[in-house]
Each structure stands twice: as C-alpha cells, then as structure tokens.
Amino acid sequence: MTAQERQEQADRDLHAVLSTPEGRRVIFRLGVQAGLLARSFVEGPDGDRLTAYNEGRRSVAAVLFDEAKRVSSSLYRRAWREYFDAEERDALALEKAREEARAASEE
C-alpha cells in the first residue's frame, strides 16, 4: 500500500467515525480529556514541566480535530454543535437539580 493509499484509508476511517453520533462523541470526549479546551499553562515550581506535558496532550487532540475538519468540515461542525448542545442540556439539568434540592431543603 502506498503512502497516498494509506492516507486515503485513514481519511475514510475517520469519516466513518465522524458519521455516527457515537463516533463524534468519542472524538470530542478524547479532545476534552486531552485538554483541547483547557489552558495548558501551569504556575508553580513544576510549572514548566507540567505546562509542556499539558501542551503535548493538547497538541495531539488539536491534530485529531484538524484531521476531522479536513476530512469533513460539515461533520466536524455538527460535532461541535452536538457537543455544545449536550453541554447546555447538562447545565440545565444541573440547575434544575439544584433548584429541586433547595426547594426540598426549605420544606
């Protein structure tokens, strides 16, 4: 298999993953766990070492997201929308649970 054929296969594989809601959730979960949406910088005595570590993790996630965007910008955008929709649902559910707990404690 040539390098071009391997790249085309990798692109098809990533497209297949992005084509399902489950696959998009996995990609985003990995990106978030790798710190893509977090700050890399760490202050303190071990700050330089921890910052480099965090930035290394984040850069791997950035490559994955860049590849996803290159392979299918429409599925990449859909994944972002789904991620933010889920974040909003989670925030609303948490707020509702807090309100219910406050109401229960006032009774």
What would the keywords be for this entry?
4 helices; 107 residues; mainly alpha
Summarize it.
This protein has 107 residues and is mainly alpha-helical. The protein is built from four helices and no strands. Helix 2 packs antiparallel against helix 3.
Instruction: Determine the structural class based on helices, strands and strand pairing.
Output: mainly alpha
Q: How large is the share of residues in beta strands? A: under 5%
Number of domains: 1
Helix fraction, binned, reads: over 70%
Tally the beta strands.
0
Series of H and E elements: HHHH
The CA-CA distance between the termini, in Å, is 70 Å
Q: Report the principal-axis shape.
A: flat
The major sheet is characterized as:
none
How many helices does DSSP assign? 4
> What does the radius of gyration come to?
19 Å
Uncertain stretches: none
Q: What is the mean pLDDT?
A: 95
Molecular structure report:
- By secondary structure, the protein is mainly alpha-helical.
- The protein has one domain (3-106).
- The protein is built from four helices and no strands.
- It has helices at residues 3-18, 21-33, 47-71, 73-106.
- The chain starts with a helix and ends with a helix.
- The model has no long low-confidence stretch (mean pLDDT 95).
